[in-house]
Structures
1.
Amino acid sequence: MFEFAVAAFLSFLVIVDPVGLAPLFLGITADRADAERNRIARNAVLLAGILIVLFGLGGRPLFNYLGVSIDSLRIAGGVLLFKLAFDMMLAARERTTEDEQHDAEEAEDITVFPLAIPLLAGPGAFATVLVFTAQAGGRTDYLVVLFAMVVLVLIISWLALRLASGLMDVLGRTGVNVITRVFGIILAALAVQLVADGALALWRA
């Protein structure tokens, strides 16, 4: 249980990358008052949490219906996470395109897009929650732990958004890139382990 909780926490932490979110959040809220920034951050985190939990609860029945095995899901999730990890290690992780960034800066409300989706609850987060719900195997205590780790990471993300200006003043762009690269290395290791576990299980089947 403890190892499962730690793995889930680290996976979501490096996928969401709260520190890396800070400069993106500042960029798309540059012309907004602090009170509005705080409201946007709070609502986006709440929405992202709801989406991740719903996807975690509903995703596995969907894949079961499609005939996708848990081990295949591990491999697919691991490959996707490794791609994200590689981008993070190069500090070249782009969560939105230039057009999406422009649309976000012009939008009246950025709570849903691009902050909740895809910055907080993106493909990596959805893949991760599917993999860990599969590993939980329907055990209620493991699912509770999993979603508790999701909530914990989102709370950290909310704090990072609230303190984004201060984080950038302290860390600067170089500091943010260093942390993102370290997170990328951790995520790459977790991704390789997922692929290895899935491939070994399929080979033994």
2.
Amino acid sequence: MRTISVMKNILAEATVSEDFTKDFGVYDLNQFLNGLSLYQNPELDFNNDGYVVMKEGKSRSKYFFADPNVIVSPPDKDISLPSEDVRFEVSTDQLDKLLKASSIYQSPDLSAIGENGVIKLVVRDKKNDTSNVYSVIVGETDKEFCFNFKVENIKILPGTYEVVVSQKLLSRFTAKNSDLTYYIAMEPDSTFG
């Protein structure tokens, strides 16, 4: 399965064990997944052309498919990084704390910074030198860089990820315990070297 954000700056790929009997369009993936979360173990019935029925016990939901013409579709070709310049691992706990700090401090930016031999992830407002900052060291490096992300683009499922970053402003987050990969674009003011 593949999905891409409307702005085309986040792409996700996952291999799932379920078989889907037909293609269907989901306009708001978060809403669809949250609807599924209403059930412990839902059965999905795709017998209708315009919607899927989610059911379990006495509960039912009807989720209508979106017209394929209004959906931004991911490219058919495989995505690959133009180069693999920086690599580190970030755990669920580290990522949760970074996102929580972003919310607490109202910080819109997440930066992967390489300096003084370490890689640290830093939540901050890069436009404000006196903004509150939260950081965590996630690796070692002999390079100097500052790769900037918008926190709002870090929409990934909980888990530990191997992160590979290209100086060409693209990153790959690969889940360590599932077949799930995200490609997330970085901000143009990122620097390498």
3.
Amino acid sequence: MLGHVADQHEIPRLGELPAVSANWFAAYTNSHHEKQVALYLGQRQIESFLPVYSTQTRWKNRCTKIIELPLFANYVFVHIDPRERARVLEVPGVLSLVGFGRSLAPLPDFEIEALRSSLGQRTIEPHPYLVIGQRVRIKAGAMCGIEGVLVRIKNKFRVVLALDALMRSVAVEVDAFELEPAANRMTA
């Protein structure tokens, strides 16, 4: 009778785990270790992707040089079966895999592929993460230093600026590079 129950539930034998497809996941790394982590992942034959962008930097001796920096600081993308998470976590410099509790958060394949295909064809650089309703500060141009609330993101960012003394608001459209998240104000 015991053999009959086992036949009904089809218990997988050792080494016969059900197939799970590989997905892209974000590996969180030590600061400034992204390139080294990507190298280690390649040596362990774990598919990875480290998007970088070029920027010009000026050293203390006034020399300028173009360097490549990670597009997403502290992250390297890995393409693995979720059961291989231990192989990634063993890599020096990897702190964790992004997820919720014990389950990993897979990234859509099309987003990674779009990043890969556009890196050589377009100018891509990091930008602060901004969401509608967030308080922002204009950091360039004639309105530099003025704060408002982001109300639309389309071709240009639309920010509503509140003039408290007049109890009025105005909307202004600015380019993305002119905005940054505003520091949270402390209330007394």
